[in-house]
Amino acid sequence: MPSTWEEFYAENPPPSDLDKNKQRVQEFCQKQLEHGSHIVLVTSGGTTVPLEHLTVRFVDNFSAGTRGASSAEYFLNSGYAVIFMHRIKSIEPFVRHVMGSKFLDMLQVSSSSNGSPTISVKPSEVDNLLPILSKYKAAQESQKLLQVGFTTLSDYLWLLRAICECLSAFGSRAMLYLAAAVSDFYVPAEQMPTHKIQSQDGVPTIHLELVPKILQPLVSLWVPSAYVVSFKLETDENILIKKARSALNTYKHKIVIGNLLQSRRNRVVFVTTHDESEARLTHSQEQQGLEIEELIVAHLKREHEKFISGTN
Ligand code: 9Z3
């Protein structure tokens, strides 16, 4: 028998930074409520499932965080306040454009008149960096972006519930954009060894339990008035729409965005109870640097507005 969501929370302790993050989220939401902003929670990146309490090994879920990070930028651009709830060390908004050695390659070292070294942006890179930096600074100054991190499945579920408690005050003005890749399986806390599993003890048998379906309380209890968007990730085209529709029928939220692992960068399918449509990028659009998240966010903004005004 899979555990219920209530049992999950009773059996798996909250992350140590939950109270601190809750307070940050509460303060952020209070500010956005005062401004009358629309707000979106973007979840991004994969959850880990630890195999030991003092974790050396864990099972991971596929997701670099590209979908979430780029979507967060487009939501900001569309006027939304954004809570970006992401796997720590996954891709983040703005930073994603200048990650790793790409950033260092944009810089140059020269000597100032007194002989001490100065670091500056290469003139040839200014046009590339300026728009990113301007948007990043604008997001910071407007205080419309809040980032909160998770690592494990349990961290994710605790944080998600805490954020929902704050979002419920926004009613239909809140959107939840659940792009994180969340594990379906986990090792319950009481079945997990404390210390590193030892190879000298032979091949370990690892028993994974089913994670309770958290969309159910989320939609029906935590944020019943919000516009909830979930993603369905499959690898087999033949079952994608069926699985997306089944999620919609089970949880009764607003829209499921279906995507295939292989083509997720250039094609998604929007599935609602009454409709099915597609967003697609042509090869040449991709070459020009267009991102499918721009189309996804534009579509959702329109649908969310109809939902708020009751005209959908
Ligand atoms: C997605 O389907 C996302 O679009 C991706 C984005 C994870 C494929 P990247 O981060 O990839 O840009 O590399 N997210 C949802 C995945 C998921 O776990 N869905 C569950 C399911 O399919 C339902 S919540 O059963």
TrEMBL record:
<feature type="domain" description="DNA/pantothenate metabolism flavoprotein C-terminal">
    <location>
        <begin position="166"/>
        <end position="285"/>
    </location>
</feature>
<feature type="region of interest" description="Disordered">
    <location>
        <begin position="1"/>
        <end position="21"/>
    </location>
</feature>
<dbReference type="Pfam" id="PF04127">
    <property type="entry name" value="DFP"/>
</dbReference>
<dbReference type="InterPro" id="IPR035929">
    <property type="entry name" value="CoaB-like_sf"/>
</dbReference>
<dbReference type="InterPro" id="IPR007085">
    <property type="entry name" value="DNA/pantothenate-metab_flavo_C"/>
</dbReference>
<dbReference type="GO" id="GO:0015937">
    <property type="term" value="P:coenzyme A biosynthetic process"/>
</dbReference>
<dbReference type="GO" id="GO:0003824">
    <property type="term" value="F:catalytic activity"/>
</dbReference>
<protein>
    <recommendedName>
        <fullName>DNA/pantothenate metabolism flavoprotein C-terminal domain-containing protein</fullName>
    </recommendedName>
</protein>
<comment type="similarity">
    <text>Belongs to the PPC synthetase family.</text>
</comment>
